[in-house]
Amino acid sequence: MKASGNMHGQLRVVQRWPFYLLPLIAALVVVEFFSGRSAGMAALIFLLLYLIFSLVWLFYWNNRITREIVEFASNFDRTQKAQMEELALPYALMSITGEFVWMNKAFRAITEDKHYQKHICSIFPEVAECLPGPGESRSETLSFQDVAYQVDMKYLEAERPFISICMYDVTEHLEALTEIEDRKIVLGLIYVDNYEEVMKSTESVRQSLLAALIERKLNKYFSAYGGIVRKLDKDKFFFILTKKDLIRIQEDRFSLLEDVKTLNIGNETAVTLSIGTGVDGDTIAANSEYARMAIDLCLGRGGDQAIVRTPEGSKFYGGKTQQQENNTRVKARIKAQALRELLVTKDQILVMGHKLSDIDSVGAAIGIYRAAKSLDKKTHIVLQDVTSSVRPLLQRFNGNPDYPEDLIVNRERALELLDDNTTVIMVDVNRPSYTECPELLNRAKSIVVLDHHRQCNEMVKNPTLSYIEPYASSACEMVAEILQYFADNLKLRPIEAEAIYAGIVIDTNNFMNKTGVRTFEAAAYLRRCGADMTRVRKMFRERMEDYRAKAETVSSVELFEGCFAFGVCPSKGIESPMIIGAQAANDLLDVIGVKASIIFTEYQDQIYISARSIDEVNVQLIMERLGGGGHLSTAGAQLRGCSVEDAKSLVKETIHQMMEEGAI
User: Fold this and answer.
1) Taking a C-beta distance cutoff of 8 angstroms, is the pair 311, 281 a contact?
2) How confident is the model at residue 373 (pLDDT cuts 50, 70, 90)?
3) Among 573, 657, 322, which Cα is nearest to 472's?
4) How far apart are CA 225 and CA 231, in angstroms?
5) pTM of the shown model
6) Nearest partner of 567 among 589, 593, 545, judged by Cα
7) CA distances from 176 to 161, 235, 243, 244 (A)
8) Phi and psi dihedrals of 620, rounded to 5?
9) Burial 135-171 (b: 16+ CB within 10 A, else e)
């Protein structure tokens, strides 16, 4: 409607409707004249009266109706504008570039600007990159002057387009959601890792007192955070608290783990705990399942740590100390019998280790091969790329008439051999993505895991049999124990015993790292089977190029924070530079003042990181932050899409952050 009062559109039709009938009435008058003069005159008089009525309608009544419509529209516009002005919700119009052109009282009260001189970015800098375009609407939750607002913006199409903005105070709503979130129930399990060992190292008259002190320590710690603890068994406890309290415990980094080690009433062994916590599940039952999964993961990683499990994954705390070796081999005997019972029911066995297999991985696979052959089962070892470190070992099997030509198969052949009656056995690895052929695990119906590395978030789903012992020095040590209980008629050949022995020697760095009583017992068993130390030593001899590369790696070392040795291993002209890097990392631990060594190797568009320590730094925790893993003293990670310098900076930043958190 224009200011002149002229109507347009449908209102114009209504305004002039009498004139649209004039042609019809005129036609009727003509028809009436043909039928008779008197009838025609009457029709003509009616036409004149109708014309007068139409003119009166157009110039008098229609103008009054128009004025009333205009007055109504004007009153409606003023009312609408007044309502928008007094609207409790802050509302404004902006240009498409973000300058305000109009705002109501509520919006002016927020901006403290009566002249619309501010730009939207002066209030909410965050929206600079998210102003809506034609046909778009945007919604953001932002904070301004300690008040949380939901900001809704919409692009308004017109001759001169605008952006409308409406703000809703959602502070109380968000506070209510936070309160609900804080009050979520958290369930947890606590296991005393070494209960039997601690009690054996304590006088019998003090054992009950020590048990009571452990329980008191747990109750005191969790009651300080508003939680409750209940005893399930002599070495198992159950606790409940809220998510808000769990966050406080996480900020405290589960200091209970270190606090409980101070309990000493004559016990020679310190008490260590495993704590598994479940939170953010849809139901209490889901949280209970998360807690169970977390405690299993704790035990699989060696204990002395806490894990908080959520639907998104797990967070790890503690785990700074090496787990005490369990001298009893009951578990090894049970696992050996279970493995035998499983393999008896299968027709074929596929054994595989991790990518770029080392001697420990191949040696363990050869041990499993001998166990399966004692049951007359068809067995193959899956190996894609033969590295320089394992080539001398495999050369003794290639062409040997005592072994089939297809003892070693590649990934493609392994997938062809796989059927419903095949068991896939993983050795020296428990992460599916790190295996030689992850697709093999996706298709296999029966999977066995034998490994000595600590578990992480990624694990095999529903394995038929899992035997993971982080305290073991190597996968070869575990396999040597299994072989002793697998079958009475099983006898290792000297070449096989030497392969397994070589794996132990490599992973223990000549029996200097992670070596326990059971390690030497396994070595003694292999010696009795005919392992020759001289032949094993010859397998470890290096090429001159590799020896020079190791020396160059050591010469490139820089000290970070005075105790972390960072070095770069050259890869040009070196067949297996990752092996050289790992060896250099081991050698650097002999330098006074070096608590941990970290070597970077660029190979096949990836950065391989080898981390080693003796006992003061848990390098596994550092590597886990980078997506890797391993052991307390031996760990590694792989990075893609970055340079060696970028990888160095990332590791340094990670160490800084962990030192500030007290995680290392």
Assistant:
1) yes
2) very high
3) 322
4) 18
5) 0.61
6) 589
7) 38, 39, 15, 14
8) -65, -40
9) eeebeeebeeeeebbebbbebeeeeeebbbbbbebbe
